[in-house]
Amino acid sequence: MGKMQGDEQHRGSHLHLIVDSPLPKTGEMIPMDENHIHLMHGETKTVLKLAPGKHTLQLIVGGEDHVVRANAPRSKTITITGPISLAARRLVRPKGGARRPIVVER
């Protein structure tokens, strides 16, 4: 994931976990629903209840306004198959080195 620059780097930045959906387009607000998980309070993990089958996960950094910026850091999309217990620990490594695991379980 890249670095945010200029007006894209401001207080309130946090991760958004996108589940089984494409990223919203630049300038659009990231919805708050079961497919768009907002990790607004410094969470380092979350638990998702997913149906059996294939699922996609992707992270994007967003500001306090939840709008997608053109150069917002984002992970690659990964595909998982459930039901499984999976610690997806390679989605993001924030500055400072600590990983932010996303835990997916049945």
Order of helices and strands: EEEEEEE
**Low-pLDDT segments, ≥5 res:** 1-10, 85-94
End-to-end span in angstroms?
28 Å
Secondary structure tally, helices: 0
Over all CA atoms, what is the radius of gyration? 13 Å
Largest sheet, spatial ordering of strands = 2-1-4-5
What share of residues is helical? Answer: under 10%
Provide the β-strand percentage band: 25-35%
Number of strands: 7
If you average the pLDDT, what whole number results? 75
Shape: globular
Counted up, domains total 1
Major sheet: 4 strands, antiparallel
Structural class: mainly beta
Structure in words:
The protein has no helices and 7 strands. It has 106 residues and is an all-beta fold. It has one domain (6-105). A 4-stranded antiparallel beta sheet has the order 2-1-4-5, with no helix packed on it. The chain has a 3-stranded mixed beta sheet with strand order 3-7-6, with no helix packed on it.
